[in-house]
Amino acid sequence: MTEPLGRDPDVLTTKELAAKLGLSAQTVRRMANAGQIPALRTGKDYRYSWSAVLDVLRQPHPHTGGSDDDHTGPGAGRLATQQARQRAREF
Fold first, then answer.
1. pLDDT tens-digit series, residues 30-75
2. Of 36, 54, 55, 44, the residue nearest 13 (C-alpha)
3. Which residue, 43, 73, 76, 79, has fewest beta-carbon neighbours within 10 Å?
């Protein structure tokens, strides 16, 4: 007898990813819209591969001079991106 197909534990909803990273769902969506994290658009929302998001967030972030004008681009703010990267290193 075959087991029913379950959901892949590596695939997360926006709410689930936000909880793991300690960010709001809105911030996670902004990061996805800005291309800061990999995401697959499913209708009005996204699905995320936990391992792919960790890979991206663990990559070194280039700093351009270290001034307060250093931005990560459109979408999620610099602080949220830094927090997500820090939490990703903890896993």
1. 999 999 999 999 988 899 999 999 999 888 866 544 444 444 555 5
2. 44
3. 43
